[in-house]
Each structure stands twice: as structure tokens, then as C-alpha cells.
Specification:
The chain is an all-alpha fold and 301 residues long. It has 15 helices and no strands. Helix 10 packs antiparallel against helix 12.
Length: 301
């Protein structure tokens, strides 16, 4: 598979996992959001550490830790993603999954602009058209909300900051996620001791749910960062629309309001995603054809 196809598969797998996560976290609405995040991170560490050691990344891990610039970048990205996770779970618990997912709808538009402004990415006319259609869908949903709430804005800003930092820092996906989890670990452990273990030692069902939450942390985050390495930032942003769309579906399953107005917004956004992906794959095929032609010319000469 080409890097483009691998990148698309990675971001789709990550966003589908995140998209249906509200159905899982809704089962823990009686547990404080930060406590949920504590276990979400804590139980994702062992398999990630084991995989890093198994694949021989120990030297790269310590090398990244000695680079003060990269360490500072990972500390900032850790703060951004931690705020994002806590706020997202809080939104689910108070019945505002749709509002949180709207923040993720705004996020790709911010990423498109960041990709052009920060990383000097070039966007073709069909891709700009896709962005315009997606923007129309987001604007429609926003108008139907009546206002863009603070949860939406914060979710968008923290995740956009996270993706920008990770792409700019040029850190291996696995090593970066491992450092992020370890940097926040002391804070989590202090909090866990301070609350006396919380719900973990009260109910065995809650304990299993808290441990299971790790499935939505390390692996999809690695896949997402892997996608940002292989794809243009703007491409990741458009494909990311899968996540909030599935979160809206999850909100519907959870009994939150969903009407024809949001269906119109969905239709516009998915039209944009299909158009963007079709153009992306066309460019990929054209690049491979040109590469083969160049190789053939070289062989002939």
C-alpha cells in the first residue's frame, strides 16, 4: 500500500474508534471526568511500553527525552490533549455529546487554514471546493445551534493545537504518545491517591469499565499521529469529519435531539469528504503514474 492509503486507513480507524466512544463513556456518567481520564491513560501505558520495548524503540525513547525542544513540545501537546479528553468526557456526562462533536466539526476547518499558513501546503481547486462545502455544512449546524458554545470552541482549539505541535515537532508517533502519557502520569497518580482510589475500588463493574477506556486512548492516538506524518495536514482535517459525524450518531443513540436540520449539515459535510478523498486519490494515482513513467524513461535512456 502507498503512504497515502496507509495514512487514510490510519485516520479512518482512529476516527471510527473515537466516534463511537461516547456510547462507552456514557456508561460511566456517575464517575468524575478527570478520574475517567486517569484510568484511560494509566491502563493504556503497559501495552504501549511493552510494544515499544518489543520493537526496539528504547534508544529512540531516551534520545527524544534528551532533546529539550522536543520534550517541551510534548509537554505542551500533553496539556492540550489532556484538556481535550477531560472536556469531552464532561460533555458526554452532562448530555452535551452533540456540542462536543460540533467542536470536532469546526476543527478540520482550523486545520485546513493551519496547513496552508504553518506548513505551506498547497490545496487544489476541488479540495478548496470540498472545504467550502464542508464549511457550509458546519455553518448550517452552527446556525441551528443558535451559537457556538464554549465547549465546542475549547474542543476545537485544544485538538488543533495538539495536531499542529505533533506535526511540527517531527516526533515518532509511538515515542511521542509514550512520552505524553508518562509526562502526565505523576499528576494522575497524585490525583488518584488524593481521591482515595475513587470508584475503582468501590464497584468491580466500574473498575472494568475504567480499564476498558484505555482502548480509546493509546492506539487511536498513535494511528492519528501516524496519519499526520503520511498525509497533508489539510487531508487529515477533512477525513477527521468521520469522528464528529459518528459522535452525532452516538448522541442520537444516547437519546439526544437530532432533526432534519442536522441531517442537512451531515449531507453537506459527507459530500465534501467524498469529493476531497476522490481528489486525493486522483492525485496519488497521477503521482504514481508519473513516477513509473520517469522510471521507464530512465531505464530506456
Amino acid at each position: 500500500m502507498t503512504p497515502t492509503v496507509i495514512g487514510i486507513a490510519s485516520v479512518v480507524a482512529a476516527t471510527v474508534t473515537w466516534g463511537f466512544s461516547p456510547l462507552y463513556y456514557a456508561q460511566m456518567s456517575h464517575i468524575p471526568p478527570f478520574e475517567v481520564v486517569v484510568h484511560r491513560i494509566l491502563w493504556s501505558l503497559p501495552p504501549i511500553i511493552a510494544y515499544a520495548l518489543y520493537t526496539g524503540r528504547r534508544a529512540r525513547f531516551f534520545e527524544a527525552g534528551r532533546d529539550t525542544r522536543k520534550l517541551a513540545a510534548m509537554a505542551l501537546s500533553t496539556l492540550a490533549i489532556s484538556v481535550n479528553w477531560v472536556l469531552f468526557i464532561y460533555a458526554i456526562q452532562i448530555g452535551e455529546t452533540a456540542q462536543a462533536s460540533f467542536g470536532y466539526y469546526i476543527y478540520p476547518l482550523a486545520v485546513l487554514l493551519l496547513g496552508v499558513a504553518v506548513f505551506n501546503e498547497r490545496i487544489s481547486k476541488p479540495q478548496w471546493l470540498a472545504a467550502a462545502i464542508a464549511s457550509a455544512g458546519v455553518l448550517w449546524i452552527g446556525l441551528r445551534f443558535g451559537a457556538v458554545p464554549w465547549i465546542s470552541l475549547t474542543v476545537m482549539a485544544t485538538f488543533a493545537l495538539y495536531g499542529t505541535i505533533r506535526k511540527a515537532a517531527q516526533i515518532s508517533p509511538l515515542i511521542g504518545v509514550l512520552w505524553e502519557l508518562l509526562l502526565i502520569l505523576p499528576v494522575l497518580l497524585v490525583y488518584w491517591v488524593w481521591i482515595g482510589g475513587g470508584q475503582f475500588f468501590v464497584d468491580w463493574r466500574d473498575a472494568l469499565l475504567l480499564i476498558g477506556g484505555s482502548v480509546f486512548t493509546g492506539v487511536p492516538l498513535i494511528l492519528f499521529v501516524e496519519a499526520t506524518k503520511r498525509l497533508r495536514f489539510a487531508t487529515v482535517g477533512v477525513l477527521f469529519y468521520i469522528n464528529p459525524t459518528l459522535q452525532f450518531v452516538s448522541a442520537l443513540i444516547l437519546g439526544e435531539a437530532f432533526g432534519w436540520d442536522r441531517a442537512i449539515g451531515f449531507g453537506l459535510i459527507w459530500t465534501a469528504v467524498i469529493l476531497y478523498c476522490a481528489e486525493l486519490l486522483r492525485q496519488d494515482r497521477a503521482a504514481r503514474t508519473a513516477s513509473k513513467a520517469a522510471s521507464g524513461d530512465g531505464a530506456t535512456s
